[in-house]
Specification:
Layout lengths: L2 H13 L11 E5 L4 E7 L9 H24 L2 E6 L12 E10 L7 H9 L13 H13 L3 E4 L2 H18 L3 H10 E2 L2 H7 L3 E2 L7 H9 L7 H14 L5 E7 L4 H19 L4 E4 L1 H5 L1 H10 L11 E9 L23
Parallel strand pairs: 6-7
Antiparallel strand pairs: 1-2, 2-4, 3-4, 5-8, 8-10, 9-10
Helix pairs in contact: 1-2, 2-3, 2-10, 4-10, 5-12
The protein binds flavin mononucleotide.
The site of flavin mononucleotide has 18 residues, from helix 2, strand 9 and helix 11.
Length: about 350
């Protein structure tokens, strides 16, 4: 196979590991020439049920481009890009929208094998964490945010446990919102067969849940308000109390497409930094999108004057060490990420 073709395949094979909400894998690439590519966001693969999800699509674009630049560095390619972020209104509905062009000069710099390994190690872990981040690493991530004029705050352990509960509660509350529940159901993968056939979405094992129980809850969500079930939920809550992760939250302006994109870049940079040291991360996106949970989190964190143009709560996550999580699968590059081209 021609070297450039192999380089392209290897590059996008690594890029295909990028994280995306619900593992929707919304990015597609179109090749314009041997080194030139356009990047598209496929709307059906983004989230649309909550209004804030549209702006969050730019977070995914930022995550993807920063991740792509790391893939280039890891494999010894020089990459440059130009953003062409579309207006947020164009993200509604179906179809693909272009958001960037990039150039890759293959095999022009020294590859970084440690970085390649970090990109393969990086995962979402929804398991119980045995320890949080070490102090120096926490400081490093806070500094990454500060360099971008964003405020990353580490929570104390009791507040971390409250945040874990708020996230859990928000996931259950969201079941009572028809549009959000239907969207979740669309992306949940309830069995090994479904996970391996579709290779996208949120698989039961990655969610640390029993597939049948998960399906039962989605189909009978009203039982979540039954007292007996409530007690079980409390038990689940008490189990998470022994979790030793550290929760963090990120405050920054979040009203324009560019601001949301910048959040994605910051998130990916933080994720890579902790993955390089063997730590995992678990985003609490539901707290951001569920209005009641968002408000309760503001109270918990004593954020009195949240303002979209100054200090909006854009990302909450827990981080630390856990057993290796189950792998979230990806659609083969030729069937999705690169389906617009003929390599
Ligand atoms: C912007 C963003 C938001 C996310 N929000 C959540 C979330 O709310 N809850 C969750 O469990 N995972 C969340 N994730 C993690 C994705 O579900 C995960 O990246 C995807 O399933 C692929 O799995 P991997 O990260 O292990 O490769 C989020 C990821 C991104 C990039």
């Amino acid at each position: 196979m021609e070297t450039n073709t192999q380089n392209i395949l290897d590059f996008f094979e690594l890029a295909n590991h990028y994280p995306s909400p619900h593992n929707g894998q919304p990015i597609e690439v179109k090749q314009l020439g041997p080194n030139a590519f356009e990047l598209y966001f496929q709307k059906e693969r983004g989230l649309q049920a909550a209004e804030v999800s549209f702006l969050f699509s730019y977070v995914t674009m930022g995550v993807f481009i920063y991740h792509l630049s790391l893939c280039a560095e890891a494999l010894g390619h020089e990459m440059s890009y130009e953003l062409q972020l579309p207006p947020v209104a164009s993200l509604k509905g179906n179809g693909a929208v272009k958001f960037a062009s990039c150039k890759v000069n293959f095999a022009t710099i020294k590859p970084d094998e440690a970085l390649r390994k970090t990109l393969l190690f990086r995962q979402t872990s929804r398991k119980k964490y045995s320890e949080g981040l070490d102090a120096a690493l926490s400081q490093r991530t806070i500094a990454i945010a500060a360099e971008k004029h964003m405020q990353l705050v580490k929570m104390n352990r009791p507040d971390t446990h409250q945040a874990i509960w708020l996230n859990q509660r928000a996931v259950f509350d969201d079941m009572f919102d028809d549009a959000v529940r239907q969207e979740l159901n669309h992306w949940l993968r309830y069995s090994k067969g479904e996970k391996e056939t579709k290779r996208d979405g949120l698989a039961y094992d990655c969610m640390e849940l029993n597939g049948r129980a998960m399906k039962f809850i989605v189909n009978h969500y009203k039982i979540l308000h039954w007292p007996i079930v409530n007690n079980l939920l409390k038990k689940y809550y008490l189990r998470t109390m022994s979790d030793n992760s550290d929760a963090f939250y990120l405050l920054t302006p979040f009203s324009t497409e560019q601001e949301a994109y910048d959040v994605g870049v910051a998130v990916m940079q933080i994720w890579q930094t902790i993955a390089a040291k063997g730590y995992y991360l678990h985003p609490f996106g539901t707290i951001m999108s569920n209005v009641a949970a968002h408000d309760d989190f503001l109270k918990l964190a004593h954020i009195d004057h949240e303002d979209r143009s100054k200090n909006f709560l854009v990302f909450i996550y827990r981080a630390g060490k856990s057993d290796p999580p189950h792998s979230s699968l990806r659609i083969p590059i030729k069937d999705h990420l690169l389906r617009r081209q003929s390599v």
